[in-house]
Amino acid sequence: MSLSRTVKSAWVIARRDFTATVLSKTFLLFLLGPLFPLLVGAMFGGIGAQVASDADQPVVAVLAPPADFARIEAARSELAVAVRGASFVRLYRVDPAADRTSQTKKLLGSSQPPIAAVLADPLGTATLTGSFRNGSADAAQVQLLLTRARSDAVPAVLDVREVAVSAGTTATIRSVTARLGQGLLFLLTLLLAGMLLSQLIEEKSNKVIEVLAAAVPVDAIFMGKLFAMLAMSLVGIAVWATAAVAGIWLLAPPEVLARLPAPAVGWPIFGLLAVIYFAMSYLLIGAAFLGIGAQASTVRQVQTLSMPITMSQVLIFAFASAGVSDGNGPVGLASAIFPLSSPFAMLARAAESGAIWTHLLAIAWQILWVALILKFAARIFRRSVLKSGGGRRSWWRRSRAQTYDPQRSGSIGVAR
Predict the structure, then answer these.
(1) Going by fewer Cβ within 10 Å, which terminus of the chain is more open, N or C?
(2) Across the chain, which distance is largest between two alpha carbons, in Å?
(3) Which residues make beta-bridge pairs with 129?
């Protein structure tokens, strides 16, 4: 069987499976599945953060004219920048009335907004009435605001000079990037590769696999199904990544994004390598899963296989994660060489080391093992399931085929 015919047959199988999967209604649910927990978590997280922020920031009603209140609010804005992330009192301006006592009592009983204290005559003889205790943090904040607002001194000019991050800090942050990249790659592989266990069950139960095997090579069936599922997974990742990038762009502060340390190979190459290593990890583990799942005949058997297979993926990830700390030591090199853990280990190296040639070598090494695993899985499937292994018989079967003829001086092989 020529290679070109195998590739053409695999393309036909892949196009058939990809079209049938992507154009189905269930694929939309597949795309929305991981987004539901993220959206719900973001929604409840935002609500919780807003509730906590509102609870941690008591409201102080300031009885002052607009000009005086503007000075106090400007002082609060300056101090809020300096202590970003800390709880700080909120200010609410109210025009002072003639009867301050009645006005204060009415404000403290108000629930829109819930007033915790009332500040009267802030730039004069300030009086703070409410639930704040003398010497509490909230009362100290109000006192600090008034001190800053009453000061007529010119603010000090501070010459801020930013230097590059030190080598030690860069190495630490890149190590974190390496582990985060590994974790994301493992999560996607764990989420998507398991579906390959049940790819051939429908064809086997409907006896379609015999028709396919008679028309195209078994290698082409395995290759086509594997690459069809990879293409479907990449479509899903593209949708999820777009949603994630949009969410980060809208919600994350710009200064945080600007300060993200770049991996050793740079963000563009790191992103490209992440996609390539996901594809290689999916192909390596998926080829093994496809071969294992092809031996199962029912969904129950696939469910029985799911737990040990998931645990094996966890062990592979743990092995690659241990290689991050070892660098070029025995564990680090072994995790980069072992085919199933190589994509995880090499993605971590892309974050910590700028060498490109190692990735070219690793990708070629992984492609070789994808071909070997597919070839081996197809051969086992052909022999154990289709019962059409062919080839030479084993030595014990040949020995059984030999019989002794007493009319002749030797034994002859009788064809069976």
Answers:
(1) C
(2) 135
(3) 118
